[in-house]
User: What shape does this take?
Amino acid sequence: MLGAGEAIEDPCSLATHRAGRGFGVIRERGDGMSVIDYLRHSEVFSGLVPEQIERIVALGQEVVYNAGDAIIREGDPSDEMYVVCGGMVEVEVSRGTIPDVPGAPRLTPIARLGQGQVFGEMALVDRGARSATVSCVQDGTVLYAIPRQAFWDLCDSDHHIGYVVMRNIAADLSFKLRHRNLQMRLAGGER
Amino acid sequence: MIYKVSYVVVDRPDLGSIVNLDAPPRVGDRVELGDEICEVVEVIDLIPPREDFAYLHVTCRLVDEGA
Assistant: This one.
């Protein structure tokens, strides 16, 4: 029996599942793509050669979620960045809570992220608390989780990997900001 | 080329999505965002392409399947 949050790793498929999140059976991936293939299709690792991506893959683990699973929660401490290898997640932010009034904060969806996208990268960069809640919206969503400290250690030891990934994370954050700006403009009827 | 696409839906900010595609979306395409079917009404280059990636912004509207 596994405890909550404990991981089991499948050496054949690299698929790792966390217990206590609504699944306990290791599944094989059907598309034949390796984790390295997935990460090569993510902008954050664009510009790295396969050997460099392998070093990043060696730091993390693959996790699978089902619809409704909360992956990270706003305000929680952070220590991992996630890459969406397949499936879809939804990013939500709270609209604030009233002091002394019990109950969960009301969450507003702001974006959905599909294959190749990353989340949790802000905490990777600034070490702050999670800025949003991210939940899985599609059964069998496959993520690759990269721990912050191990990643920083790799960047310290190989500045080229660090430069390329940090440049790409900056570009990804810029893209998300542009997406959000256009969304706000459309909501405001300015088009 | 990998197409990194920002989707926004008129009057439905909750359906906005970012996904990577193997082929660029085109005006008139229908796409499923969340549980809704949407039609692409505009595709623009959001920023210049870099390395293997092109960056597109797509505006959609909900499809009224009863119409």
Remarks:
- The radius of gyration of chain B is 12 Å.
- Chain B touches chain A at residues 2, 4, 6, 8, 10-11, 13-20, 33-34, 46-47, 50-53, 55, 57, 59 (CB under 8 Å).
